[in-house]
Amino acid sequence: MKMQIFVPRDAGAIAVGADEVAAAIEQAAAKAGIGVEIVRTGSRGLYWLEPMVEVATPTGRQAFGPVSAVDAPSVFEAMVADGPHGLRLGLVEAIPWLKRQTRLTFARCGVVDPRSLESYRAHGGTRGLERALAFSPEDILTAVTSSGLRGRGGAGFPTGIKWRTVAGCAGDKYIVCNADEGDSGSFADRMIMEGDPFVVIEGMTIAAIAVGATKGYIYIRSEYPHAIAAMTAAVVAARRNGLLGAHIQGSLHSFDIEIRVGAGSYVCGEETALLESIEGRRGVVRAKPPLPAHQGLFGRPTVVNNVLSFAAVPFILAEGAQAYADFGMGRSRGTMPIQLGGNVRYGGLFETAFGISLGELVNDIGGGTRSGRAVRAVQVGGPLGAYFPPALFDTPFDYEAFAARDGLIGHGGVVVFDDGVNMARQARFAFAFCAGESCGKCTPCRIGAVRGLETIDRILAGREVAANFALIEDLCETMALGSLCALGGFTPYPVRSALKYFRDDFGPPQAAE
């Protein structure tokens, strides 16, 4: 029997040499005359240890990392001998960073071969769909609603309510997966698509059965070529094996999926701009109402959820709504795949139940800064998220808890900054980002971001500082209340938080007097 070795094909692992490591292991095995099967998996999300290579043993999968192509021959020898090695990490499940997680959505990521439907099924895949096919649409809607699942794309809207709204509409309907993951510090969508793509397809298919849709689209950002390839291969395999197309698994339900690739616009992460892009037009935000649930893609009722939302659904159907709702706190139920990035010692994907504190995430799990200097600020929720100082590190990771402190969870990206950061420059970046990415449809976003950038520059130059601080506050209020979408509406979060908690970085107030 061939020795089974697992090497990630995740884009993050490839960037640090995973392909070269796989080739080097193959060469070492050939030289030793030992038969091996190299399985290219996704990443487990321990990015400081990538490429992390695993070998199947009678006691479980043993991990080594980070492995370079130079290390590969000696690592292979240690695998064969089951002996010691400087890069040996032990049993994967026993690695503390993994052991303390609650992996519901990411249970198979880094475990299965993402190109193999057989591997997916062998690890519990399609169980949710099988139960959904035995349920009525109302049963599915009740399960998703009872689970407490909320949209993982940032808004946190209850998924069951959205689905039920679409189900109550007549005529043709669509399912759209928003995979235009553009937030800084966010990579969970990419990891799922590259490491467990069938779970996204399964979640979308369950949604289609629940609401009565027959066609779906996955809109993937063009900067994700590996995810595009993985999802495309998975759709083809699912169609070939009767999980997509006419009469799914011999049932009366029919549903198929088409992959669409974005053109690099950040604002297409907003659901209505995304729909415009799928329809072949420039990605410009639509005024709401009507909501996409009533009048979405091609003017028809449409479910729009992001990758993590659809990926959570199979567990809910397979294990039951209560099994999912048992995790979390308050109205934030289940788990959240949190992405730790920036200046952090242990960066990667950490899935855990809602309720963990921000300080525990940054200092305990993340290990503090990679530079070794003090943490000064953490931005949660992408480039439009608020900056939280260490004084707010007792904040639970929960939608309402963050909102109560003028923050937002967003897509779960956590970016850490040490005490070398200039927060006035970060506030300036927020306006610059919005000005550069605005679709231009609404005046508060299109003009407000440009005026904000100019005003910050005047403050940094020490010109009429007090008056310009007042102007910034007015601009933020106008953008928050008047913008058509979250791009302009959320830009005030980083600006206001920088002004509130890091005012000294903007220079002494008397400079303007």
Structural descriptors:
single chain; 513 residues; alpha/beta; five-stranded mixed β-sheet; 16 strands; 16% strand; globular
Structure report:
This protein is an alpha/beta fold and about 525 residues long. Helices cover about 40% and strands about 15% of the residues. The strands form four sheets. Strands 2-1-3-4-5 form a five-stranded mixed beta sheet, with helices on one face. Strands 13-12-16-14-15 form a five-stranded mixed beta sheet. A hairpin with a 2-residue loop joins strand 3 and strand 4. Helix 17 (about 425-435) packs antiparallel against helix 18 (about 445-460). It starts with a strand and ends in a 12-residue tail after the last helix.
Set down the secondary structure blueprint.
Blueprint: E1 3-8, H1 11-15, H2 18-32, E2 36-41, E3 53-57, E4 60-64, H3 72-81, E5 88-91, H4 96-99, H5 117-122, H6 127-134, H7 137-147, H8 159-167, E6 174-179, H9 188-195, H10 197-211, E7 215-220, H11 225-240, E8 256-261, H12 271-278, E9 302-306, H13 307-319, H14 321-325, E10 328-329, E11 332-333, E12 335-342, E13 348-353, H15 358-365, E14 375-380, E15 387-388, H16 399-404, E16 413-418, H17 423-437, H18 443-460, H19 465-482, H20 486-490, H21 492-501
Parallel strand pairs: 1-2, 6-7, 6-9, 7-8, 12-16
Antiparallel strand pairs: 1-3, 3-4, 4-5, 10-11, 12-13, 14-15, 14-16
Helix pairs in contact: 2-3, 6-10, 6-13, 7-8, 7-10, 9-10, 9-11, 10-13, 17-18, 17-21, 18-19
